[in-house]
Amino acid sequence: MERGQVKRLVLVGLVLAVIILVGAAWVIQARRSMTTSTLAAVLPGDPPRAPGGVRIRVQVLNTTGKHGLARRATRLLRDRGFDVVEMGNASPAIDTTVALDRSGHPEWAAAAAKVLSPAVSRTQRDSSRYLDVTVLLGRTWRAPAQPFDP
């Protein structure tokens, strides 16, 4: 094999490697944007969101015993601009989802309740918690359909 042919083969190999890397990056970006836009596609119109320019710290607690419900609510709230800082389980079980105002901003709890409709919001201030809203997921809340994770 001549030296010129070896250089051409190396050059072709490098070009193919660059094309593969660019394609992989494009696929990864397409999948990321698809998962964040899926929730907006499931809920038509202008979906409710957290108010702009503020950081609303939210705790999500599943009272139903249904596995994974707090995680699904966390994903939905984060997709809508809320900062979910904690999730877990709680008891006793309740029927209706409740968003509790913890920091004296009832409009923030109402916005979270609107995202997790059907839900209600109430004020139950607690300055000992570093939270703005506590969400107690009830048995009537249904998570929107989501695609499988890539």
Please describe what this structure looks like.
The chain has 150 residues and is an alpha/beta fold. It has two domains: 42 residues; 81 residues, Alpha-Beta Plaits (2-Layer Sandwich). It has three helices and five strands; from the N terminus they run H-E-H-E-E-H-E-E. The protein is elongated, with a radius of gyration of 23 Å.
Q: How much is the average pLDDT?
A: 88
Number of helices: 3
Radius of gyration: 23 Å
Helix proportion:
40-55%
CATH architecture name of the largest domain: 2-Layer Sandwich
Lateral arrangement of strands in the main beta sheet: 2-1-5-3-4
What is the global morphology? elongated
Largest sheet: 5 strands, mixed
Strand content: 15-25%
Number of strands: 5
> Which runs of at least 5 residues are low in confidence (pLDDT < 50)?
35-43
Structural class comes to alpha/beta
Which features characterize this protein?
150 residues, 2 domains, 41% helix, 19% strand, elongated
Question: How do the strands and helices of this protein lay out in sequence?
Answer:
Layout: H1 3-42, E1 57-62, H2 69-79, E2 83-89, E3 97-101, H3 106-115, E4 119-123, E5 133-137
Parallel strand pairs: 1-2, 1-5, 3-4
Antiparallel strand pairs: 3-5
Condensed summary:
The chain is of the alpha/beta class. The chain has three helices and five strands; from the N terminus they run αβαββαββ.
